[in-house]
Amino acid sequence: MIKAIQAIQSIKKNPDSNFLLVGDNDFLYIYIKNLIKENNTDSLESITFDCSDKASVQDDILNSLSAIDLFQSKKIIIIKNINKVSKKNKDLFINALSNNENSNIIICTDNSFLGFDYKSKKNFIKSQFVNDITPFFHVIDISVPFESEMNKWIKVFSSDFDFPISNNIANNLIEIFGNNFSAIYNEISKLSVLADSVEDVNQDWLDSFYDWKKNKQALFFTKINNGTITDFSRNNLRGKIITKIPSSSEKYTLEEIERGINLLAGLDKKIKTRNIINESEFTNLVTQIYRYE
């Protein structure tokens, strides 16, 4: 099993292989799947099945894997949640997936969380059945990586858009978004459209992500200054928020403002480190912070 970042070059060199994608990151699943499709010289039709659907779907998958027709065009067969194969079908799937006469490209996924072996410091597949079929595939780990790996991914994404990213911008992206792949990818995509080169990416871009922090800090300092907005805050804020800060500072105690800053910092950390943010949790936090607004 190799990590997704290491698999990119091997996919580009040999996209005709069969692939087993294991791990819980939806963005990496879509990214790797599209990479396999894009690097196939033929424009192949793709068929997607999901083993977690009704039981008859597994029969349809087995029929597709077993069908050999010399007159049929080559396809990409995507089988999601391969770990959900029923007990009675496991041997049938193993036989079908091991069939070398099948000319189709097969992409299987197991989006369960991987286990982690602290001794070897490596991820491992928990499902015994999925382990049993690994010999038939190139196995790719698509679990969420550590933030330390994100610089490599930023280089890959910037290459996709032919838009070189400086180390400074890369570090800022990681500081802002952590290991949130889709947010970083979308931001690089926007930058590549809005700026002719990385030199054109000015401080306004970075500042826009810190407005929430600046607003609360300005509120904090205005409260300390008896309702008068400081020159420092005035110079670092934008738009109508400048006129609202003095009146807003009267609605909160100093302790409430400090608590708001801490809540926002906690929310910022969760956004950076989770794949999915609970909507009610987000709403509750915002309500607590801005309840008088």
Structural features, described:
Helices cover 51% and strands 12% of the residues. The chain has 293 residues and is α/β, with parallel strands linked by helices. It has 3 domains: 2-141, P-loop containing nucleotide triphosphate hydrolases (Rossmann fold, 3-Layer(aba) Sandwich); 147-201; 208-289. Helix 1 packs parallel to helix 2 (26-38). The radius of gyration is 25 Å and the shape is globular. The termini are far apart.
Q: CATH architecture of the largest domain, please?
A: 3-Layer(aba) Sandwich
CATH superfamily of the largest domain: P-loop containing nucleotide triphosphate hydrolases
What radius of gyration results from the CA coordinates?
A: 25 Å
Largest sheet, strands/sense/barrel: 6 strands, parallel
Structural class: alpha/beta
Helix content: 40-55%
Residue runs with pLDDT of under 50 for 5 or more positions:
236-242, 272-277
Give the beta-strand count.
Answer: 8
What tags apply to this protein structure?
293 residues, alpha/beta, Rossmann fold, six-stranded parallel beta sheet, two-stranded antiparallel sheet, globular
Q: What's the short version?
A:
With 293 residues, this protein is an alpha/beta fold. The chain has helices at residues 4-13, 26-38, 56-66, 90-97, 128-133, 150-160, 167-177, 181-194, 203-207, 211-224, 231-236, 241-249, 254-273, 279-289; strands spanning 2-3, 19-22, 45-50, 75-80, 105-110, 115-117, 122-124, 138-141.
Secondary-structure topology with pairs:
Blueprint: E1 2-3, H1 4-13, E2 19-22, H2 26-38, E3 45-50, H3 56-66, E4 75-80, H4 90-97, E5 105-110, E6 115-117, E7 122-124, H5 128-133, E8 138-141, H6 150-160, H7 167-177, H8 181-194, H9 203-207, H10 211-224, H11 231-236, H12 241-249, H13 254-273, H14 279-289
Parallel strand pairs: 1-8, 2-5, 2-8, 3-4, 4-5
Antiparallel strand pairs: 6-7
Helix pairs in contact: 1-2, 10-12, 10-13, 13-14
